[in-house]
């Protein structure tokens, strides 16, 4: 039995129920819009897990120009400076918009926004809500606003499986739900599907975030950008839980120290120490672990007794594994956390495929460059959602041919996870990347449950092979230095497959590229 969606034909379709998708839907009101979510709203979105908050220059000692400078520095030469400038300058107004929607931001006794400090920020500019529960609080307010907006039709328990493209433009979405397949006729689709954490064994993201939006866009022929840049958070709680509980950078912003089993602060010689850019800290922790040490976060002195009050989510995660942060060291290790790459878009969210937009982590605006500045991601999603909605609203639906709905297999990344975890980790090398590409190609060509995850993994792998340098979050042990010229990367699925096929029959990288 198929879901009856004929009465919804022609509406913009937003795929994804996180902060990017919800905010885009709200900005499109009062135009009728259809929002698809695999799970009940807020139940399985990375947005709800975000601890750090939103970055915006709101302090008396701060300025958007300083925020921009910090963003460009963290991006290690690969930010789109024009995009970054427009986004950070719009950030303060976006915070005000969220407050008007009912987000209960943390405030001082005098009523001013309480601003936190995170790594690579030169000022306190991180706006929190509920301490380390910022994402949950923002999602709570947005879900309530969406539920109360009559022009937003939310369909939960539905997964988009393919975009239908005719004559080079999007004409609909093939989806699957508990009652069977469905075809949603639309010429306007917004991808807001989140990241790729579910493609890795160790991640701080929901395991269901497997790059579905990247696969949808790639299968539709879209250009993707900067896929090789994957951020590993240096401080995930080292234990058996998967996904791994995140220990927010804000903890180090309040003075926590990284130490090894001897109690030594092994980052003393690193510029910025605990508050160095994430890629620097992640590599230092990774190397110390590889050298046979254990690594811990020490919060006993700072933030000390205030830890449980200021970071209740983290304190609860520690308690579940028998750790009392007031007395015990917290074992940590790096874990996949955020994807700087994504579907290539302009600031209106337009992709290279007419009728297709992207917003949030699935998109690549150029804000993050080679290494995302802490807490810029939620800010980007909220700011860009308005511009995406304006672009979608200005692109009227011109009709499409009805298509027979048919089922496509559900995707399962379990065969891909060990391959990407081994080949695309904190430190990479050419031989490992070539081995990963050779292993992924047959999974992609098998058209089974691993096909879409393998397609995403292959595009990331080929992009990493092509970048023969180390920059930001992409570190090649065989190319440990910057290239002379900083260039953003672009790739399509067809190009990645062609490269992998040649690589499968070619012994050297040079004969392929």
TrEMBL record:
Its cofactor is FAD. Pathway: Cofactor biosynthesis; NAD(+) biosynthesis; iminoaspartate from L-aspartate (oxidase route): step 1/1. GO terms for biological process: 'de novo' NAD+ biosynthetic process from L-aspartate. The keyword Glycosyltransferase does not apply. GO terms for cellular component: cytoplasm. It is found in: Cytoplasm. Keywords: FAD, Flavoprotein, Oxidoreductase, Pyridine nucleotide biosynthesis. Residues 13-378 form the FAD-dependent oxidoreductase 2 FAD-binding domain. SUPFAM superfamilies: FAD/NAD(P)-binding domain, Succinate dehydrogenase/fumarate reductase flavoprotein C-terminal domain, Succinate dehydrogenase/fumarate reductase flavoprotein, catalytic domain. Belongs to the FAD-dependent oxidoreductase 2 family. NadB subfamily. PANTHER family: L-ASPARTATE OXIDASE, L-ASPARTATE OXIDASE, CHLOROPLASTIC. This is L-aspartate oxidase. It comes from Mesorhizobium amorphae CCNWGS0123. The lineage of its organism: Bacteria, Pseudomonadati, Pseudomonadota, Alphaproteobacteria, Hyphomicrobiales.
């Amino acid at each position: 039995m198929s879901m009856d969606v004929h009465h919804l034909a022609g509406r913009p379709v937003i795929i994804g129920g996180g902060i990017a998708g919800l905010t885009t839907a709200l900005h499109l009101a009062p135009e009728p819009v259809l929002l698809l979510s695999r799970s009940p709203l807020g139940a399985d979105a990375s947005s709800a897990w975000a601890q750090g908050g939103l970055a915006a220059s709101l302090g008396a000692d701060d300025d958007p120009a300083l925020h921009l400078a910090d963003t460009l520095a963290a991006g290690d030469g690969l930010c789109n400076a024009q995009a970054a400038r427009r986004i950070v300058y719009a950030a303060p107004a976006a915070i005000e918009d969220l407050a008007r929607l009912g987000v209960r931001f943390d405030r001082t006794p005098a009523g001013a926004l309480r601003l936190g400090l995170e790594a690579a920020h030169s000022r306190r500019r991180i706006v929190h809500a509920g301490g380390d529960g910022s994402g949950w609080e923002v999602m709570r307010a947005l879900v309530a606003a969406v539920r109360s907006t009559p022009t937003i039709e939310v369909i939960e328990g539905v997964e988009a499986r393919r975009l239908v493209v005719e004559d080079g433009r999007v004409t609909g979405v093939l989806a699957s739900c508990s009652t069977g397949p469905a075809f949603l006729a639309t010429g306007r689709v917004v991808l807001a599907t989140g990241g790729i954490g579910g493609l890795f064994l160790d991640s701080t993201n929901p395991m269901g975030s497997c790059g579905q939006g990247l696969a949808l866009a790639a299968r539709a022929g879209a250009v993707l950008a900067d896929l090789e840049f994957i951020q590993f958070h240096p401080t995930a709680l080292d234990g058996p839980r998967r996904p791994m509980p995140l220990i927010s950078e804000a903890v180090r912003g309040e003075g926590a120290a990284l130490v090894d089993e001897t109690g030594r602060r092994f980052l003393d010689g690193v510029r910025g120490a605990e508050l160095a850019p994430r890629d620097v800290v992640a590599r230092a922790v990774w190397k110390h672990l590889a050298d046979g040490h254990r690594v811990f976060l020490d919060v006993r002195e700072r933030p000390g007794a205030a830890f449980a009050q200021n970071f209740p989510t983290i304190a609860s995660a520690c308690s579940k594994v028998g750790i009392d942060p007031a007395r015990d060291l917290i074992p940590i290790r790096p874990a996949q956390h955020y994807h700087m790459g994504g579907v290539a878009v302009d600031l209106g969210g337009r992709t290279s495929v007419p009728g297709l937009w992207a917003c949030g982590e699935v998109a690549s605006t150029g804000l993050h460059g080679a290494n995302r500045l802490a807490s810029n991601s939620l800010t980007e999603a909220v700011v860009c959602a308005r511009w995406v909605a304006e672009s979608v609203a200005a692109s009227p639906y011109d009709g499409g041919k009805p298509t027979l709905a048919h089922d496509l297999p559900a995707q399962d990344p379990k065969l891909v996870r060990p391959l990407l975890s081994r080949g695309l980790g904190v430190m990479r090398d050419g031989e490992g990347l070539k081995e990963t590409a050779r292993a992924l190609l047959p999974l992609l060509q098998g058209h089974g449950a691993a096909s879409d995850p393998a397609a995403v993994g292959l595009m990331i792998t080929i992009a990493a092979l092509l970048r023969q340098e180390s920059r930001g979050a992409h570190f090649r042990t065989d190319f440990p230095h910057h290239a002379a010229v900083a260039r953003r990367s672009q790739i399509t699925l067809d190009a990645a497959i062609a490269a992998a096929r040649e690589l499968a029959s070619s012994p050297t990288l040079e004969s392929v590229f």
